[in-house]
Specification:
Blueprint: H1 2-23, E1 24-27, E2 31-37, E3 40-41, E4 49-52, E5 58-64, E6 68-78, E7 84-95, H2 98-103, H3 108-126, H4 129-134, H5 136-151, E8 156-167, H6 170-212, H7 214-229, H8 242-253, H9 292-295
Helix pairs in contact: 3-5, 6-7
């Protein structure tokens, strides 16, 4: 009798052990459990830790609650200004309602991926090329709103959407490079012209000051010679200012002062001229044309 009782107890313990092993489940800290009993949602969401289900009758679905990083494949489209581009992005999302993520959508990962691709193509068609290249923050917000609207009913929350890269055709890259080069060349010419204008004004003021003091021009010439000699060249180039040449030319053209006149009225001079009178200059003989009488 006792042996039968011991055998029955051992049998019950074995059945209990097998049942426990079949019914025991462990939900990790970053997961939530959803139990479907005979295909119907049973109870609430199971919290992390040890939990039990009825074998064969219950089915436990574990949902990852971590933030999921999903790359969006590159989508090719035409922008609003008729430029063909390829744009890829990345989506960060997480599940906030495990029950809806299991019941309302078949595969929430695939659904979010398809919605992201569709929204990305729509954003490309509504935007200009300059917005895709420089105003990405606004496009990211619009893309996040387009994906998050339907994802709320799936128990999924979109945390962030980022446009990774914008690929342009080679012809468009060359055109943009030429445009940037032309713009930089224009700015360089404007800056150079402005510098020339300022320099001309300063040189004009300096010339006005130097014209009042001739010695300043000589000092400036010596400074130029010193600056050239500092280069330690074997050949020294000495610039000659035009103003100095004009000054020498004016000095040569200046008339000599008249000598003082003599005292006597007509005596003492040769050929009837006074002593103080200057000697007459001989005029060059002019050659007249020969006539018929001269030839005879």
């Amino acid at each position: 009798m006792i042996q039968e009782l011991i055998g029955a107890a051992v049998g019950l313990a074995g059945v209990a052990g097998v049942y426990t092993a079949a019914a025991a489940r462990v939900v990790k800290q970053y997961e939530r459990g959803v139990v479907l009993r005979l295909g119907k949602l049973y109870g609430g969401v199971r919290e992390p830790g040890f939990t039990m289900v009825v074998p064969v009758v219950d089915r436990l679905h574990k949902v990852n609650m971590q933030i999921i990083t999903m790359p969006v494949p590159a989508q090719e489209g035409i922008t609003r200004d008729n430029v063909t581009v390829r744009v890829d992005a990345v989506v960060y999302f997480r599940v906030v309602d495990a029950a809806n993520a299991i019941i309302r959508v078949e595969d929430y990962r695939f659904a979010v991926s398809q919605m992201a691709q569709t929204s990305l193509r729509s954003i490309i068609g509504k935007s200009d090329l300059d917005d895709l290249l420089s105003n990405r923050e606004k496009l990211n917000e619009g893309l996040e709103l387009m994906i998050d609207s339907p994802a709320v009913g799936w128990g999924v929350q979109i945390d962030r959407v980022e446009i990774k890269d914008v690929s342009l055709p080679e012809t468009m890259k060359r055109s943009m490079a030429r445009q940037a080069e032309a713009d930089r060349e224009r700015r360089a010419r404007v800056i150079n012209a402005d510098a020339e204008l300022q320099a001309s004004k300063k040189l004009s003021e300096a010339a006005g000051v130097m014209s009042k003091e001739p010695a300043a021009l000589q000092l400036r010439l010596l400074q130029t010679v010193v600056a050239v000699a500092a280069e330690k060249n074997s050949t020294l180039v000495l610039p000659f200012p035009v103003e100095l040449l004009r000054f020498l030319e004016r000095a040569q053209r200046a008339p000599d002062p008249d000598p003082p006149s003599g005292g006597g009225g007509g005596g003492g001079g040769k050929d009837g001229h006074g002593a103080g009178d200057a000697e007459p200059r001989e005029l060059p003989a002019t050659k007249r044309p020969e006539g018929p009488a001269d030839r005879g």
